[in-house]
Design brief:
- By secondary structure, the protein is an all-alpha fold.
- Helices cover 47% and strands 0% of the residues.
- Helix 1 crosses helix 5 and helix 2 runs antiparallel to helix 3.
- The protein is globular and about 45 Å long.
- The two termini are 14 Å apart.
């Protein structure tokens, strides 16, 4: 496991750091899961309404459904994509690849 210099470094307390990684799609995540698990995993796209229905069926309260669905809408509309990130510099190394990250979580 790699360590982060962000844990030991000194930082300007007035700075704002953007901690974004590489951009990935749900298809990319399905491919990484397929690689790690050794079996095919497929991404399935849902409309915003279908997603809200799934959240409701999972028992999430309406206010939480609205927040989570709103985040997914922002992702679909590219609202959370950033062009600059301080992540590599703060880590002191490149972030894990998607496959490496999935391997660590599973």
């Amino acid at each position: 496991m790699k360590t982060s210099k962000a844990l030991t470094g000194s930082f300007d307390s007035n700075a704002i750091y953007e901690l974004a990684g590489d951009l990935h799609t749900y298809a990319d995540l399905a491919e990484a899961l397929s690689t790690v698990l050794g079996k095919e995993v497929q991404a399935r796209g849902l409309s915003s309404q279908e997603y809200r229905q799934a959240l409701a069926q999972a028992g999430l309260p309406e206010p939480v459904q609205a927040i989570v669905a709103g985040i997914q809408d922002d992702i679909a509309n590219h609202q959370l994509e950033v062009e600059h990130s301080d992540l590599d510099r703060l880590l002191g190394h490149a972030p894990l690849s998607l496959v490496e990250a999935v391997e660590e979580m599973i």
